[in-house]
Write a structure and sequence with these properties.
202 residues, alpha+beta, Immunoglobulin-like, 2 domains, five-stranded antiparallel β-sheet, 10 strands, elongated
Length: 202
Amino acid sequence: MKTKRQLVFLIVGLILLASGGFFLIRRAAPAASQSQAVALSDWIYGSGGNLNVMVNYPEEIQTGRKNLITVTYEADEALKSVLTNGVVFDLQLDMIKTVIQPQKRMLIPVESGRKTFSWEVEPFTAGVANASISLALGDSSVSGNYAITAQQVINFSMNISDSGSPAAMNLTIPGFICLGVGVASLLAAFLSKNKQPVKKRK
């Protein structure tokens, strides 16, 4: 009888552990993302080259969390020929009711090879975030004291969910409950096994 009980505890414990892990993995999985690509032409030196830029952003972000907006950029061969003269990638993220780090406007010297830069954004309230990224090329004289003169603007929107809402917690709480009960079931199976009485010889 006790052997059957141990088996039940063991099976239930393993199922609950697997279920808890599934819930927590689903909760931690990143949201689906979108991307937009543009090319910034070299108007400074007239090389005929471009800085190829791709912006990647999540479809949904959460309050109280650092969400990433990533910019990947690379100079083509023609633009590479004038990089030693000084080329600056000027970009600015505008998004209201949001903390933007390290800062909303960045001036990045362009180097050869593919490079990546990320903003961390933390919205204040749930809803829909309308954002825009202004992009331009400049020379070494570009200053953050003056407004950016954009060559290209990327507009996009993201849904904002409340990280403390029941909807956000509906996978976390069951996940931890399943893990806790699963561990308890495995422990019960182990203790039940150790408490089996020794059969007396007739």
